[in-house]
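Long-time lurker. I teach an intro course on protein structure, and each term I like to show students one example going from raw sequence to a predicted 3D structure in token notation. This year I'd like something fresh instead of my usual example. Would anyone be willing to generate the tokens for the chain below so I can use it in lecture? Attribution to the forum is fine with me.
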Amino acid sequence: MTETLPTFRVHFHDGTSMDIEAGNSLIAEARARKERPGSFVKKIKLVREVRS
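-- Reply from a regular --
Happy to contribute to a lecture. Here you go:
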């Protein structure tokens, strides 16, 4: 049985957001900061339904 990682939606102060699969919200934030250096994270939410 394989378990999938939860998806987190990371929102930035400029109004953009990105979905990241990670073990927890801190890991999701770290990955988002790597992809968007210099951007400020506003909030992180657990996604219950993935965008299609």
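Some talking points for your students: The chain is about 20% helix and 35% strand. Strands lie at 7-12, 17-21, 41-46.
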